[in-house]
Design goal:
alpha/beta; 5 domains; 14 strands; globular
Length: 948
């Protein structure tokens, strides 16, 4: 018997290894076909988690053997192998079809062998059918499969089969929301696996235990289980189980509020799923929930919907619905109520009501949440009816979640109930809900509870609650060691700080208001300015490859755009259409590349830094008697401004609704677009006419105060970053000295110099190729060289010329600039060897550099989130430069050369950069009526160290 077994095992190995297996299969087998099929199945079972491709080859050979020796029993065994080989791709639908076919073939074999039993019993496949049916959300069928498997085990005690059934029953319990039973069954699985020395099953049991403990809020137990799972999976050499354990660890970190660490853990898990690409659906879902908490809502919504699509494709209904519910919540947070309603309708269409009470409860809660975001135009009686119905549904859902001991989901449900009660005017009930969550273990729940409670209560009671909410916001931001997500998180969570500022203003506590405003506007930049970088991006192969791909796509877009324009002028409409289609394809690919690069960059954690926001007194102390600050901030839809001077008490005023400013900015943008690149002297009147209403609205209320000051420091916010402030101020007073700063907090906070020595000025240029040639750049560089004789001139410059160990006193970059508002880390300056990304600019060492001039287009443009941290100008400020001169729009090459010549001429005569820029700009106002105002002087500190 042993000889037959060894012969079957050897032949199985030979068949799997063979490129042409039929030639290896002998005419006279050294064993029976069934013994060969059993040997092949053993190979499948041993490798179905560690080497799926090998398992699939073994299953394919089993199918070949069954086809060669066709009997019902042989087909039954082959189907069993084929199902197991694809189980962990995962392909539960396909696996289940094979298992069902195996059972049908077995029944046929029983009929053929009657009254005797077939040589091989295939009915243990009921055990793996439990797992398939559970993952597909077919719970009643799964329970029936459990009963069939247990009946078989009663008659045929088999420890390994019993072990697998325990594991799958644990998974089924978790899928059905019974996490207490999931943990109990996982413990039984682990105990039996250890006694049988099945390390692989023990690892899977530990993963199940960890998942159940996380859902029950038993985090210390989950942490131990995850480590045990990883240790056991390493011993068993199963990378897929290791990856699942790491995903579980990411989930735990997420529940504990360690969002960036969770995101990093997910990235680390991805390579383990190379054999099972459809497992990425689960990764995407977890990434969506983490991104939502990091307030990266567009990316979170996209990931959740993609996850739902992948789950639906696998017919994993419960998982698909869960992903859709996540997407709906994110859409509601993003004020996309119609999108949320469509997603909910899609989710409801995928399930049978009552089949899973937990899913029904989750749907009820999301619908209740949606009811609190009624669209405009809904009548008050209808809205009240909807809210009362939502309240009833939410209460029922809460009871289900409480019975299931789902602590986090229950807390989120209470937040929804509080919002409903608040809308219904049941303020005391809402307060009760929020107060019950102030001590919750999850930071996001605590943060929301403190913040929402602060929104309800009067200012005296709200102030300490909002201070705690903002403390949690800052705490969370500071554990996100990556500039992009820090900036975005800070921007998205600024409403807590602004509500705190509103309370403080109402109570006359201007110092507290200023602190809250500055933390929201400048906290991230202050921290990033003192943060260190562990990453040499110049040596990162992934960054280099992505940059090269970005550059290629940008060239492709430019070439096809020019070709489309030329074809259109020649009335070659078919060719023009073709080139425009190529532009769209390249733009889509560019977006994907930028997204992938951003995603990769988020794992490049750097040294954390923190710098406290200065006090009001400290900011005022940095001002001279001739300086005044206008600090803009937004609370709700209202734009406020705070006027600060050295000795007088601060003045705070509401100025106007944001929508009013947006309307005027839209009108200005139309005029600016009309004259961009070819404005003539006669257009000056139209430009002034478009800017005057903005000047009157924003600066007019302060005119009686501003006339006594020589230097005006403006700290914009939101939409105000789009404005050419030098032109607005010129409408008020032509000779007013102007400086922009992201916030007065930056103006007053010292830059700690990591070095004391600076190098000579470094002037870099790149004129680009013939199609995008900067014809006047050579003239620009020559003029600068004449005014700054010790400057090092490099043209064409490369990205390596920016990365020098000693910071230059002046850094000037003349080139093309591109701004990517959707993926700001990919905004770039074009140099001879490719783009120099904003991501890289943040990692420069410019402490000691007095002036950076970004002589390129759109280098002062910021995205809708993240404020100046995610603009090129802001990146150079974060890198340590004291002052950055950057542009708001696409300025002509000729105008730029003239401006830079005059700028450096005034600097050479001893003027500070802001003063020199102002003189240069006013000297060009009539000649270049639009472009004279494109450049702005941003200052990151009041500590001007000089350029000489």
């Amino acid at each position: 018997m042993s000889d037959y077994f060894e012969a079957a095992k050897q032949l199985a190995a030979d068949l799997i290894a063979a490129e042409d297996p039929p030639t290896v299969l002998p005419e006279n087998l050294p064993c029976t076909p069934l013994e060969l099929l059993i040997a092949l199945h053993a190979e499948v079972r041993q490798t179905m988690l560690s080497d799926i491709a090998y398992a699939q080859r073994a299953a394919a050979r089993a199918h070949m053997v069954a086809e060669t020796y066709p009997t019902a029993l042989h087909y039954a065994q082959a189907h069993w192998s084929q199902g197991s080989a694809i189980l962990y791709l995962p392909n539960y639908v396909g696996a289940l079809a094979h298992y069902d076919a195996a059972l049908e073939c077995y029944r046929q074999a029983c009929r053929e062998a009657a009254p005797h039993a077939p040589q091989r019993d295939i009915r243990p496949v009921h055990v793996v059918r439990v797992f398939c049916l559970s993952e597909l959300g077919r719970y009643q069928e799964a329970i029936a499969a459990v009963e069939a498997a247990e009946q078989w085990l009663h008659d045929h005690p088999e420890p390994y089969i019993h072990l697998t059934l325990l594991l799958n029953r644990s998974q089924l319990a978790g899928s059905m929301g019974n996490y207490v039973e999931m943990v109990i069954l996982a413990d039984a699985t682990i105990q039996l696996a250890v006694s049988l020395d099945h390390t692989d099953r023990a690892a899977q049991g530990w993963v199940n235990r960890a998942n159940g403990c996380i859902m029950l809020g038993r985090y210390p137990e989950a942490e131990i289980a995850i480590q045990n799972a990883i240790d056991a999976a390493i011993i068993a050499e199963e990378p897929l189980t290791i990856a699942r354990a790491r995903c579980c660890k990411a989930w735990l970190l997420h529940h504990q509020g360690h969002l960036f660490a969770a995101l990093t853990e997910l990235r680390a898990a991805m390579p383990g799923f190379e054999q099972a690409p459809d497992e990425l659906a689960m990764l995407l879902l977890e990434e969506a929930t983490i991104s939502a908490q990091l307030r990266q809502l567009p990316e979170a919504l996209s990931a959740a919907r993609q996850s739902a699509m992948l789950f639906a494709r696998q017919q994993m209904t419960a998982y698909s619905v869960n992903a859709l519910l996540t997407a709906a919540r994110i859409a509601i947070e993003h004020d996309q109520t119609q999108t949320a309603l469509q997603i909910l309708t899609q989710a409801q269409s995928q399930i049978v009501a009552g089949s899973n009470p937990l899913i029904d409860a989750e749907i009820a809660l999301v619908l209740s949440l949606l009811a609190t975001h009624a669209e405009s135009g809904t009548t008050l009686p209808k809205r009240t009816r909807n809210l009362k119905h939502a309240k009833k549904s939410a209460a029922t859902a809460l009871a289900i979640l409480a019975a299931a001991r789902l602590d986090l989901a229950y807390a989120q449900g209470r937040m929804i109930c509080a919002a409903i009660d608040r809308e219904l005017g049941l303020i005391e009930r809402a307060i009760e809900h929020y107060r019950s969550l102030l001590d919750h273990h999850h930071p996001a729940i605590r943060m929301a509870a403190f913040g929402e409670l602060g929104n309800i209560l009067p200012p005296e009671q709200a102030l300490p609650l909002l201070e705690e909410a903002t403390r949690l916001v800052v705490q969370q931001r500071r554990v996100l060691p990556m500039e992009e997500i820090q900036a975005r998180y800070s921007s998205e969570m600024a409403h807590y700080h602004m509500r705190l500022a509103q309370c403080a203003i109402d109570l006359g506590q201007i110092e507290r208001a200023a602190s809250a405003i500055w933390e929201a506007k400048a906290g991230a930049m202050l921290d990033l300015r003192v943060a260190g970088s562990n990453n040499d991006l110049a040596e990162d192969a992934h960054i280099a490859a992505s940059k090269a791909h970005l550059a290629r796509l940008q060239r492709l877009i430019q070439e096809h755009t020019r070709s489309a324009s030329a074809a259109s002028h020649q009335d070659q409409h078919e060719q023009a259409t073709f080139h425009l289609q190529q532009v769209r394809h390249a733009e889509a690919e560019l977006g994907i590349c930028a997204k992938e690069l951003t995603s990769y960059a988020r794992i490049l954690a750097d040294d954390l830094g923190s710098q406290p926001v200065p006090t009001l007194a400290a900011v005022q102390a940095t001002l001279s008697p001739t300086e005044v600050v206008l600090e803009w901030f937004q609370i709700g839809d209202m734009l406020y401004c705070m006027l600060l001077s050295k000795d007088a008490p601060p003045l705070v005023r509401p100025i106007t609704r944001t929508r009013t400013v947006v309307r005027l900015i839209d009108q200005w943008n139309l005029v600016a677009h009309r004259y961009q690149g070819h404005a003539q002297q006669q257009s000056l009147g139209h430009i002034q006419q478009a800017l005057k209403p903005l000047s009157d609205l924003l600066l007019g209320p302060w005119s009686e105060h501003l006339h006594v000051f020589q230097k005006l420091i403006i700290a914009p916010c939101g939409v105000l970053y789009q404005l050419p402030w030098v032109a607005l101020v010129a409408e008020l007073a032509a000779e007013k000295h102007l400086i922009l700063t992201p916030s007065a907090a930056l103006w007053a906070a010292p830059i700690e110099l990591g070095i004391t020595k600076t190098g000579p000025p470094r002037i870099l240029g790149y004129q680009d190729d013939a199609a995008n040639y900067l014809a006047h750049l050579e003239r620009e560089l020559a003029a600068i060289a004449s005014h700054v004789p010790d400057a090092i001139i490099i043209s064409p410059a490369t990205t390596n010329d920016l990365r020098q160990s000693v910071a230059p006193r002046i850094l000037h970059i003349g080139s093309h600039g591109t701004t990517n508002t959707s993926a700001p880390l990919c905004s770039a300056l074009q140099l001879a060897d490719g783009p120099f990304l904003l991501l890289e600019a943040h990692r420069l060492e410019l402490h000691g550099t007095s002036l950076v001039v970004l002589s390129a287009c759109e280098t002062s443009v910021r995205p809708d989130h993240g404020d100046m941290v995610l603009a090129l100008a802001g990146a150079f400020l974060c890198a340590g430069s004291e002052t950055v001169i950057a542009s708001l729009w696409r300025i002509s090459d000729e105008a730029t050369a003239v401006l830079m010549d005059r700028l450096y001429a005034w600097i050479a005569q001893g003027d500070t950069p802001p003063a020199a820029l102002l003189k240069a700009q006013h000297s060009m106002r009539t000649t270049y009526p639009l472009d004279w105002a494109a450049f702005q002087c941003w200052s990151g500190t009041s500590q001007y160290s000089g350029l000489r």
